[in-house]
Design a protein that fits this description.
Elements lengths: L7 H5 L1 H5 L11 H30 L3 H25 L4 H5 L14 H9 L15 H9 L4 H11 L6 H4 L11 H13 L2 H31 L11 H6 L7 H5 L5
Length: 259
């Protein structure tokens, strides 16, 4: 072990961190492009960490800790949206000056974002198989874990709410589906105004926050490359538009007119 005392640089591994930006061209804006996307991946890592903590808190019926985790995730999502503003300072000409150097790389290959989608219940067959090992196994494991909403319904059950047994025993590899019996119970949860009702609202905030980030991301891509295919042969704006306004927690949106 080193006798040197721990410093700011050694604790945060600053030298190693700053060595990770390796532009493929001499174009000025490529460094910004790399930094922004690396920072996104760091935030995705933190969000996954916080959502795992949220699920642990829900399993322990610890509503205050679950609310604190949701507050942190929501604050991070505001930062994710704000980073789009920085990326939009790069003009289409600037991006196109180094775009060819990206070759087959694409944001669609972000394994952490796929993990995030799986955790939030946006699950699709075949996504894991599109990634190489060990990412494929990691995604497959996430796919077979209960989502945040599954954990929330189990929290309600543990708190005395009569969540239908078939809902609790559902195939968690499938997307979250709306359920009228659950919706009727959620209306009562809201009417009681307990911490469970606050959790409902924070989950709606989370759903809205992800949708807001998706929208800003779509518009950023559209203003940068228009209708061109995305990098790496991806579908680009067309695919990104198809992801807009897909609700993560349909029950919580369905009851709005009943409250």
């Amino acid at each position: 072990m080193s006798d040197k005392p721990l410093s700011y640089a050694s604790y945060l591994r600053i030298d190693e961190l700053l060595a990770q930006q390796q532009p493929k061209s001499a174009e000025h804006d490529e460094l910004l492009f790399i930094v922004i996307h690396q920072v996104y991946e760091l935030w995705f890592k933190q969000v996954l960490h916080e959502l795992d903590g949220l699920n642990t808190a829900l399993a322990a019926t610890d509503a205050p800790r679950a609310l604190a985790a949701l507050k942190r995730v929501l604050t991070i999502f505001k930062t994710l949206v704000g980073q789009v503003d920085i990326l939009e300072t790069m003009t289409p000409l600037s991006f196109n000056s180094f775009r060819a150097r990206l070759e087959a790389s694409s944001g669609f290959q972000s394994a952490q974002f796929r993990e995030l989608e799986f955790l939030l219940g946006h699950r699709r067959a075949g996504i894991a198989e599109q990634h190489p090992e060990p990412v494929r196994s990691r995604l497959a494991a996430r796919l077979h874990q209960p989502s945040v909403y599954d954990h929330f319904l189990r929290y309600l059950k543990a708190s005395g709410w009569a969540i239908p047994a078939e809902v609790l025993a559902r195939d968690v590899t499938q997307p979250t589906a709306a359920n009228e019996a659950v919706q009727a119970l959620l209306v009562q949860v809201y009417q009681q105004g307990t911490l469970a009702a606050q959790l409902c609202e924070r989950l709606v905030d989370l759903d809205e926050g992800l949708q807001e980030w998706r929208y800003r991301h779509v518009k950023m891509v559209e203003r940068t490359i228009g209708s061109k295919p995305g990098t790496g042969g991806s579908a680009g704006v067309g695919y990104l538009r198809s992801t807009l306004f897909q609700q993560l927690f349909p029950d919580l949106w369905a009851i709005r007119a009943q409250l």
